[in-house]
Specification:
0% strand, 246 residues, mainly alpha
Length: 246
């Protein structure tokens, strides 16, 4: 893969966002998910992005491991694994554009559901999520992460619904993706999307991922919980627009 100087700068910025989205503001991931397909064919971009995410997951888990809520991870994982298998099957039957629209549609439905539940529970401080909520969110998280590395907005909506403080939010998300992204590796390799050439590009981009990840924690420490949650929702909404329209 040969890139011009400006393309390397853009790739480095995208890699830094991959790290920052894991330890700082969730939802900024949609920016780097949008950057890579601009410079690399969409299917190849999937294989290049996954190792970067795994590297960022390791940073996030190390930083927030004392804050994670294992119950939230455990409720999602079995269903997310099923979603990964469904996504792997779907990748063999739909093209890149169709996959992007499907993922955008799923996240749009989840976003509408979140707003509906938020309004319905406006007068209820500790309302419990319905029984079906975790299985559905887990399936969609697994499917969307396999098809387009775009489960961040789905996971964000799930954790917002659980009303987790921002550090627990980030720790739980880090643990979930650290597991599920490693699970995806053999599927992505089988599809021919991770290659020696793609790993070589990953090697050059890892310092940018590390820089973004290290920047995230100081930013989080300075953000109010309410601003944190509203920022996540705004970025999730932008993710839906980006996936459905562009």
């Amino acid at each position: 893969m040969h890139f011009e100087t400006w393309q390397w700068i853009l790739l480095g910025f995208g890699a830094a966002l991959a790290g920052f989205s894991k330890t700082g503001i969730p939802g900024t991931s949609i920016l780097f998910i949008a950057i890579f397909p601009m410079l690399i064919p969409a299917r190849q971009a999937t294989g290049i992005v996954l190792p970067l995410l795994i590297f960022a997951d390791l940073f996030a888990y190390t930083i927030y491991r004392k804050n994670l809520e294992w119950r939230g991870v455990g409720r999602l994982l079995p269903w997310a694994l099923a979603g990964v298998i469904l996504g792997w099957m779907a990748l063999g039957r739909i093209n890149d554009r169709q996959a992007t629209k499907v993922v955008g549609g799923i996240i749009a439905v989840m976003l509408l559901l979140h707003w509906w539940r938020r309004r319905a529970e406006a007068d209820v401080v500790a309302a419990k999520s319905p029984v079906w909520f975790a299985p559905v969110m887990g399936l969609f998280a697994g499917f969307t992460t396999m098809v387009a590395n775009a489960a961040g907005p789905v996971m964000a909506l799930y954790l917002l619904a659980r009303r987790l403080p921002k550090l627990e939010f980030l720790g739980t998300s880090a643990a979930f993706f650290l597991v599920i992204n490693w699970v995806k590796v053999p599927f992505v390799v089988q599809l021919g999307l991770i290659t020696p050439e793609s790993l070589k590009l990953n090697f050059f981009l890892l310092p940018a991922v590390a820089a973004g990840a290290l920047l995230g924690r100081p930013v989080v420490d300075r953000i109010n919980q309410r601003y944190f949650e509203n920022g996540v929702l705004v970025l999730t909404t932008l993710a839906v627009v980006q996936l459905l329209i562009f």
